[in-house]
C-alpha cells in the first residue's frame, strides 16, 4: 500500500492532505523522512512492520471510519487553523477526529460533510469522478432568462472556462445550480463575470445527502450530527458506481 493511502485510512486527512504532510517532512518511515513513493508493509505474519510517525508520534492503527454532516453558518472558516477563532476546528468534537470534505467559503453556508475516511474524500473531491454538489444562490438583482442559459453553458472568467452545468430559476433573483467541477469561488466568479453579485450562497446537497431532508432531523445552522447507517450506505452505493 502507498503511504498516502494508508495515512488517509488512518484518519490523518484526505490523500491530498496526507501528500502535503509528506512533502512538509512531517511523516517519518522507520526513522527517516518519508517520500511519496514509499510503499509500506504492516503484516506481522511476514515479519514486516514498518514504523510510521506523524510529528514524532507513532501511527499504529486505523481509526473507525466516521461520517458526520454539518450545517455551516456564514462566518465559519473551513480551514482547520487553531489560531483562527472562526475556524471550524473549534466546533469539531474532540473525538472522533473529523475533517471537512472540501470547503465552503467563509461567506457561504450550508451542507458540509465531515469524516476521517480518506478514500471516500478522494472519490468525492477528485475532479475525475465528477460528483454533484447543489447550491441555491441569491443575487443582488433580478436576472433575465439568458443569464440562466449562459450559466448553464459554462462561463469564462479569469482565463478559466467553467464546464456546462445544470441551472434552474428559483425566483426573479435566485437560482439553483448543480456543479461537478468545484473551482475556487466558482459560482461567485461566474456570476460576477455576467455582471451580478452573489449576496447569499447555500449548498443544499452533496450527491445523495440533501440538507432539506437532513433538516427534518432539526439540523439547524451551526449544528452537526453523525450520518445514519442508511445515509452512509446510500452515499457509498452511489460512489461505488463511479
Amino acid at each position: 500500500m502507498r503511504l498516502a493511502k494508508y495515512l488517509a485510512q488512518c484518519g490523518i486527512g484526505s490523500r491530498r492532505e496526507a501528500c502535503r504532510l509528506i512533502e512538509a517532512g512531517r511523516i517519518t518511515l522507520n526513522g527517516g523522512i518519508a517520500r511519496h513513493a514509499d510503499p509500506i508493509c504492516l503484516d506481522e505474519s511476514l515479519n514486516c512492520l514498518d514504523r510510521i510517525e506523524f510529528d514524532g508520534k507513532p501511527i499504529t492503527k486505523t481509526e473507525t471510519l466516521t461520517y458526520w454532516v454539518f450545517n455551516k453558518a456564514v462566518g465559519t472558516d473551513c480551514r482547520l487553523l487553531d489560531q483562527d477563532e472562526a475556524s471550524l476546528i473549534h466546533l469539531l468534537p474532540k473525538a472522533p477526529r473529523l475533517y471537512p470534505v472540501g470547503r465552503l467559503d467563509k461567506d457561504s453556508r450550508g451542507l458540509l460533510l465531515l469524516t476521517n475516511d480518506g478514500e471516500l474524500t478522494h472519490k468525492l473531491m477528485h475532479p475525475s469522478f465528477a460528483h454533484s454538489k447543489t447550491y441555491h444562490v441569491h443575487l443582488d438583482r433580478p436576472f433575465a432568462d439568458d443569464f440562466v442559459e449562459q450559466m448553464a453553458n459554462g462561463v469564462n472568467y479569469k482565463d478559466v472556462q467553467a464546464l456546462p452545468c445544470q441551472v434552474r430559476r428559483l425566483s426573479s433573483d435566485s437560482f439553483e445550480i448543480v456543479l461537478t467541477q468545484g473551482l475556487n469561488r466558482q459560482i461567485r466568479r461566474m456570476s460576477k463575470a455576467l455582471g451580478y453579485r452573489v449576496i447569499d450562497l447555500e449548498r443544499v446537497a452533496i450527491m445523495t445527502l440533501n440538507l432539506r431532508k437532513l433538516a427534518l432531523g432539526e439540523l439547524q445552522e451551526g449544528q452537526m450530527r453523525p450520518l445514519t447507517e442508511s445515509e452512509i450506505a446510500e452515499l457509498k452505493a452511489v460512489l461505488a458506481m463511479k
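The chain has a mean pLDDT of 88. The first helix runs from residue 3 to 9.
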